[in-house]
Amino acid sequence: MRALQPLLHDVVMCVAAPAFAASPRDGQLRGRSAEGFYGHDRRLLHTACLLIDGCEPEPIGVQPLGPDRVRFTSVHRYPRDRTSDPTVIIERVRTAGGGESILLRNVGTVARRLHVELALATDLADIADVKRGRTGTTVRCSTAAHVPGLDWRSRTGRAQVRVTEPGPVPEVTDGPEGGTLTWPRVLLRPGESRQIRLTVSGSAVPDPPGHPRAPASPAPWSEPVVHGDRRLVALVRQGLGDLSALRLADPERTDPDGPEDQFIAAGCPWYLTLFGRDSIWAARMMLPLGTGLARGTLWALARRQGTAHDVFREEAPGRILHELRPADVDHGNGLRLPSRYYGSVDATPLFVTLLVEAWHWGLPDADVDALLPYAERAMEWVVRTSAADEDGLLRYYPRAGGLRHQSWKDSEDAVRDAAGRRIEPPLALCEVQGYAYQAASGLAGLLAARGRPETAERLAAWARALRKRFADTFWLPSPQGPAPRYVAIAVGRGLEPVSGPASNMGQLLSTGILDEAGCRDVAAWLACAELNSGWGLRSRSAALPGFNPLSYHGGSVWTHDTAIAIQGLCAAGCTAEVSALTEGLLEAAAHFDYRMPELYGGDSRTEGSPAPLAYPAACRPQGWSAASGVAVLSALLGLAPDASRRVLRVRPTFLAPLRVQRLRLAGREFEVRVGGPGAQVVVRGLPDGWSVDTGGV
User: Fold this and answer.
1) Residue whose C-alpha is closest to residue 320's, from 435, 424, 426
2) pTM greater than 0.70
């Protein structure tokens, strides 16, 4: 029988990349499912089961103390007591990348002598095996020398647990099935407490050289002060906290004395590493708070840009990395990926656009000029790959044993037609053509500003030709729909469009590949009940066969996908559609306590309908979901800087009062206030030489 991926809907996560801890709500780790302490894609501990006088404490609550810490509270009761009140309280504070502390408190009126045991074990499993639902063989442990603790070591990993001072010293036993720390006679007088502190550490074997690590410096963005819709305020605040916990740093630097190159890991628990597409999107969304994250992301990817042709890696000169792992990984079902894998069709044009947008937001000239050759090589890959296609479109051609679909909808059944049939690659996805057009157009503008008009014009001409091919190829008629036509999710062999409305077309709105009429038609589809669930944008129309509100890409709502659509609708001036999607996203956020999951259920929101449910195996926190609050905030303000003219365009889509301080442009903090008396727009604090264009609002 095939093992199933663990469900995460009721798992308590705390994360400090590259470490995290996954726990059930009672805090007891029993070696089940995805439970455990992790570091660098390795499970360091899967069992940490606490017994008091031979019994498991009774759980009464769990409290997040921040993205990286959580407190589990339980009680130990005595049947012979004359009161039903608990008299011994146990508080376990678990910290990602650290360990845990166990506080034993006697709040009763009589002394207690406790027998405390903590059973510890691990399989040192790779995160890919955990994701496949495979629990490895328990690794034999040994007693640590000189200090109280236990050690584990296998061919692929190592881990250790240490009891730290001050605190009671345990008896330590080891064995093939794990070890036990025992405190046989912990005396607690009335009002007294005892604390036990443990550290959990370890790594893969061998330790992967050059692999990203925990950052040593603060987050490279400003902390905005937002006044407005309380849900938007909370979404931005929670998202920034989660992003801080998801930060990783490249061990290499452009300058040994310069800043760390930080980026956002894709998501916890499955993708806590550098992912080209995900890390780029998170950095793009965060640009209104500074260019530091974009700079780090660009350099981390530039250092790993493809330089040769390699079939297993799917590497090619100029191609941008898809994902980075400590070692090659067998994901099961024939999918085997190398530690450096380039099987992504969208990361490469998105890399170019990130550099262009970071330039507009004020990335220092030294970085722009140093990164420009990498962007040009990336654009050469896009143009070269498109030229190899007889239709001149940007398609993906996966190898056997690699990812079948290579854009953000990358599951096995990600691309299906209106009848529900799976469509196989090679495919030219609609949003990928938009990414390529935006990359070429943007890079042409940057090159023109750098005094290279001929190269700029060649790229601009290529972009115009792609725009025309797109207009001639991707539209499908829909006489009964909310608009007379819609954009096909993809074009297959022989320029055959893949029928059936899907959310992909929403990501085209801000790329420039659509004309004004096309933007109106797409906006109508995004707002209709087939795609707008009332909680956000469905990935596939609810009117199509095979729609599943809890599928990965066949009807669920993706937080970032909805945010990108809102960005595009704002840029197109589609006020009513913006309002509908934004309201739904903010209402969903409130039900998730503003820590947005990677994706969630696409059931319709109606009067009195139950709260939306997270996809059972969704990452949470997740990079581009956490950054979506800032993306929506910036979109509602209508912020669009133009570095070539030193003009900040501000076009708020609707004028509900909103004030944001500590935005950042070209290294300078500024403030925007919209709405209020006379529907005014006020911008203060722009850098010297910059002006603001409000369009007369």
Assistant:
1) 435
2) yes
